[in-house]
């Protein structure tokens, strides 16, 4: 007998970070479509809602889904939206499957985390920048919890390896008047910019920075590269080839991974969504979340939060990025860190990657530079 479950899908397909959110929605919908063809033990019906980037709408729509009988929701991109809805899931005993890289320092019995933890994306970037780029950073970000915390983690880790942050600037989400910021950065001449801007603010910054560097005769990519834990393929299309080329990104997934699993994923994604946005790390994390959820539902025989959570503990999946599994202690995923450089054709050249999936360390217990032990970021290998 086939068990039927309604699953909430909550991404801001409209609003200031819609490009990435639409790719996340696409990744989830692809997984639902594949499951419909592959499995006859569970049937998942996606119920899609769009908060449009509004915090109050996230809370309202979460309550609408949970009070309608839905117990599992795949969704949220920003940390502020996740923080907004967690009390709703705790009150109504639902599970949020959160498919985005994030700043860590959180543990919630009502959340399954399929995106990267700070030790899987911030620390690998610190290691790469200190070894290959320089020791003077200028930090910028959108004015909310992700950027604040990510910059704090970066600052502490970078300082532990002899780096210095020359300045930090935070701007409202959606702010696009960024030429003055670009000018200020060039005046400081840091070795690189550590970027935590999101959505339209990030796209405007990359374009403004390119224009200011060109006006001053500066080789932007070679002299002051921009490094991010957020920059992804669909955003390169928004930025444009001139301004989007030559940036560094730390991620657990790039669409250019040359494995059979990823080639099959990107081909299926392209067929289903020929108009984009392109596949990216957060789209893959959404795809992973839905696949893991289906298996957990089949094992649990119910969609109630506690049995599903128990069923997903230790579960593995042959994901596009490589084998992943859900850590039974933290309910975060084991993922494979990579460093990429953006290209003019809106993809990433993979420069380095870890030889295998790295266990999540959301509280940086094993890798924090604040401890009286050396920082232990993952050792990355050169990709030939």
Briefly summarize what is shown:
This protein has 384 residues and is an alpha/beta fold. The chain has helices spanning 18-38, 55-67, 79-92, 118-132, 145-160, 179-188, 199-215, 220-223, 233-239, 241-244, 260-272, 281-300, 305-312, and strands at 3-10, 42-49, 72-75, 95-98, 111-113, 136-142, 164-171, 192-196, 226-228, 248-251, 316-319, 322-326, 333-334, 338-342, 348-353, 381-382.
Care to describe what's here?
This protein is an alpha/beta fold and 384 residues long. The protein has 2 domains: 3-116 and 257-334, 3-Layer(aba) Sandwich (Rossmann fold), CATH 3.40.50; 119-255 and 337-382, Rossmann fold, CATH 3.40.50. It is 42% helix and 20% strand. It is built from 13 helices and 16 strands. The protein has helices at residues 18-38, 55-67, 79-92, 118-132, 145-160, 179-188, 199-215, 220-223, 233-239, 241-244, 260-272, 281-300, 305-312; strands at residues 3-10, 42-49, 72-75, 95-98, 111-113, 136-142, 164-171, 192-196, 226-228, 248-251, 316-319, 322-326, 333-334, 338-342, 348-353, 381-382. The strands form 3 sheets. It has an 8-stranded mixed sheet with strand order 7-6-8-9-10-14-15-16, sandwiched between helices. Helix 5 links the parallel strand 6 (136-142) and strand 7. Helix 1 (18-38) runs parallel beside helix 12 (281-300). The relative contact order is 0.16. Mean pLDDT is 94; it is low at 370-376.
């Amino acid at each position: 007998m086939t068990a039927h479950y309604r699953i909430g899908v909550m991404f801001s397909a409209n609003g200031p970070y819609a490009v990435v959110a639409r790719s996340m929605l696409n990744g989830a919908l692809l997984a639902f479509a594949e499951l419909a063809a592959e499995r006859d033990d569970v049937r998942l019906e996606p119920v899609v809602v769009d908060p449009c980037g509004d915090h109050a709408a996230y809370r309202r729509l979460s309550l609408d889904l949970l009070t309608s009988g839905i117990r599992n929701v795949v969704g949220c991109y920003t940390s502020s939206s996740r923080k907004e809805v967690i009390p709703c899931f705790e009150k109504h005993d639902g599970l949020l499957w959160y498919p985005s890289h994030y700043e860590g320092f959180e543990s919630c019995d009502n959340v399954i985390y399929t995106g990267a933890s700070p030790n899987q994306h911030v620390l690998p970037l610190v290691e790469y920048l200190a070894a290959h780029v320089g020791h003077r950073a200028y930090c910028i970000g959108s004015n909310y919890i992700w950027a604040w915390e990510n910059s704090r983690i970066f600052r502490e880790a970078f300082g532990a390896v002899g780096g210095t942050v020359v300045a930090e600037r935070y701007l409202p989400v959606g702010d696009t008047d960024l030429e003055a910021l670009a000018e200020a950065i060039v005046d400081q001449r840091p070795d690189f910019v550590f970027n935590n801007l999101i959505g339209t603010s990030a796209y405007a910054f990359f374009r403004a920075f390119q224009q200011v560097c060109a006006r001053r005769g500066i080789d932007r990519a070679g002299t002051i590269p921009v490094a991010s834990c957020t920059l992804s393929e669909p955003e390169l299309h928004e930025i444009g080839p001139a301004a989007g080329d030559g940036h560094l990104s730390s991620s657990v997934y790039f669409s250019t991974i040359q494995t059979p699993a990823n080639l099959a994923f990107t081909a299926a994604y392209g067929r289903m969504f020929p108009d984009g946005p392109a596949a990216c790390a957060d789209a893959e994390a959404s795809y992973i979340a839905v696949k893991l959820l289906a298996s957990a539902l089949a094992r649990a025989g119910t969609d109630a939060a506690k049995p599903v959570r128990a069923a997903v503990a230790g579960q593995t999946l042959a994901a596009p990025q490589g084998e992943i599994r859900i850590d039974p202690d933290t309910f975060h995923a084991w993922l494979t860190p990579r460093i990429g450089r953006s290209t003019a054709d809106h993809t990433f050249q993979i420069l380095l990657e870890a030889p295998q999936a790295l266990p999540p360390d959301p509280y940086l217990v094993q890798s924090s530079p604040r401890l009286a032990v050396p920082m232990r970021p993952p050792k990355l290998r050169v990709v030939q």
